[in-house]
Amino acid sequence: MTTRRTNPKVDAVIVGFGWAGSLMAAELSRANMNVVAIDRGPWRDTFPDTPLTADPDELRWKTRRELLAPPHDTTLTMRNTLDQTAVPQRDFGISELGGGVGGQGFQWAGMAWRFNPWDFRVRSETIERYGMARAEDGELQLQDWGITYAELEPDYDRWEQIAGVAGQAGNLRGKLTSRGNPFEGPRSREYPTPKLKTLRMMEIFNKATSEMGLHPFTIPCANVSQAYVNPLGVTMAPCTYCGFCSSYGCGNYSKASPQTCVFPALLNNNPNFRLITNACVTRVNKAADGKSVTGVTYIDQNGSEVLQPADIICLTAFQMENVRLMLLSGIGKPYDPLTSEGVVGRNFSFQTVSGADLWFEEDHINPFIGAGGLGSQIDDYNSDNFDHSSLDFIGGAGILTLSRDGTPIANANKLPPGTPRWGSGFKRAYSNYYQNYGVLFNQGTSMPIKRGYLDLDPTYKDPFGLPLLRLTYDYARNDRAMATFTMNRAIQIGKRMGASQFSAFNFAEKPFTTAIGASNHTIGGAVMGADPTSSAVNSYLQSWDCHNVFVVGASAFPNNGGYNPTGTVGALALRAARAICGNYARKPGALQKG
Amino acid sequence: MDDEDVRTLKAVFDRLIPEDQFGPSASKVGCLDFLDAQLTGGYGEASTLYREGPEQPHEEQMLQKAQFIAIPRERYRAGLQALRAYILETDGASFADLPPSRQDEILAGMEQGTIKLGMALNTGAFFELMLTNVREGYFADPYYGGNKDMAGWKMIGFPGARYDYRAYTDRTGQKLNLVPVSLVPKN
């Protein structure tokens, strides 16, 4: 490390400038706080990085993952059990960090969910409905979030308004409609823009599931369906169904991202805000009393170490990096998997995925028309929407089909079982089945286990010489049973859809691995709750140990719902920002009694 | 790569994606040029990979997927060398000079794990590397040197680098016959 300099002190420093960081920066600077955001990646925006003349490029963005932070710079090590030696993930895997400002929010698919009310109170609800033995099976470590869906609803609403989410309400202030998802929590108002079009694969799915007495609906999608101006005054253009969303920027200003929805309001002529790019925060610095922090240390693009003093520190990096920064900085007691004591690194969870690949004959799915979050789903087997009394698990999965991803390199792997992978047999099959492939994807809940956690690896280091994060995890018995149950539902639905061939899959049949992309939804490690002995942060995402540290992201979820996490990350960020601008600004200190 | 390596690779690629009624062969649409460009750039140097040691013997078992510290450029060199030595031993010839049926037999053996090209080489992973790259060349935008005349896209019916399908969203289940578009502007 060379020269060490100190920047002028600010009210708040934001570490990681993705969805959570940009939303908090916008809310705090609007409240006249002086804010600095620091991101390890470069500046990046639709123009000049992903205009329409560069965006529709599968090789560059989806195959080579040019929008992600490369494993070379940041990766993790993994093992399934405590007695194993962890190995590093050398190539891209499930841990996908954005490689520039905007984070993953720049290249995400855009499924814009709220969690089900049950997801926030899994422990209490399970005990109430099925008894203590179901909640305490010796392996699971269930704990409530310390907030309810109803408390988070206003923040969900604001996040949807900022992102311009396209969808159709299924539960409007308690009134159920058959046009949306009747299982969702009550919404205070309709989605900001109408739901997107129903494409071919969705038609097939909707017909079959309706005939089966299930309740299909269009997935809420962060691609605006019509021209839209969000509450920050930012304009978005209607989605053109180009299909280049997941792993891509949006050349059309249609997919919600920090760049499209927040940056223009934050970066234009705002004396309260400064952004520092290509700068990696390596440590949060504790005050002498250990009860608060004084700022952060980062390494700038020249390799110099810089101090950034601040009154408030918001860790809004990727889930994994939030946990790693807490461990590197000594904020909160590290978790011990043998005793279940300690809070940092606790309750890692994932997404328990099963489903079925489907092939049809003589159809024209036209899979190139679509959007990243566009599809149909049923929630009849998600959360606790069905009776688990006679089952041996809790939780469930959203069973969905997608109208997206008609990209030719990736889809060459989507051929019926037994099809030749090369030669004329491959070419014949792909010529036919490119237009006739669909998927039923069960995006399942994931329940934390006592022996699933994050800590620092004893061997492997990043380019700065800091330890990598180590993940110890395998699927819970509960989740394996859930995945099998929902896989069998997918097979029934696939048959009803008229698929001529199908191939069921269940990622939870095998040990967990970070190398094979079942999902990129990694969850937990700095979880929220009402009890300081089992959570790292309180219900405002404020550290129990250092009152001026807020840790915001999917790191805060004590368990994962059967949905994509981004909407809940956005809502929690806005909730934390509200608390900071309100009670905390008036009287800095613990916002909640432990 | 020397000339013999290039000859071998061309023969391998043209068995993986041969000339037939569905479309031209891999080499005809530029897959060798594609690979050459890829190996010359960041991909060939594994610039994104985490390559710090120690390399542990149980990495593949733990991750259920092979991973490498060796860079793709080096993996091709070592793989093609091992393939050359193996075929000299078994057939006394070059891969490129064997009849197609024998070439397919060797490739299938590499794919299915019945042929090992030597102790030091993960033969299955080398086969997968070649299959992955030839498919990339065949289906990536012509901008990268392969998929000449968008032959790969025409074969399956992918319209390419278009960005606006609003005129077609209501025509569900219909054959649209869209002529593909590349990122490379038309002359």
UniProtKB/TrEMBL annotation, chain A:
SUPFAM superfamilies: FAD-linked reductases, C-terminal domain, FAD/NAD(P)-binding domain. Keywords: FAD, Flavoprotein, Oxidoreductase, Plasmid. Signal peptide: none annotated. Pfam families: GMC_oxred_C, GMC_oxred_N. The keyword Zinc does not apply. Residues 232-352 form the Glucose-methanol-choline oxidoreductase N-terminal domain. InterPro entries: FAD/NAD-bd_sf, GMC_OxRdtase_N, GMC_OxRtase_C. Residues 448-573 form the Glucose-methanol-choline oxidoreductase C-terminal domain. It comes from the Bacteria. The keyword Membrane does not apply. Belongs to the GMC oxidoreductase family. This is GMC family oxidoreductase. It comes from Rhizobium indicum.
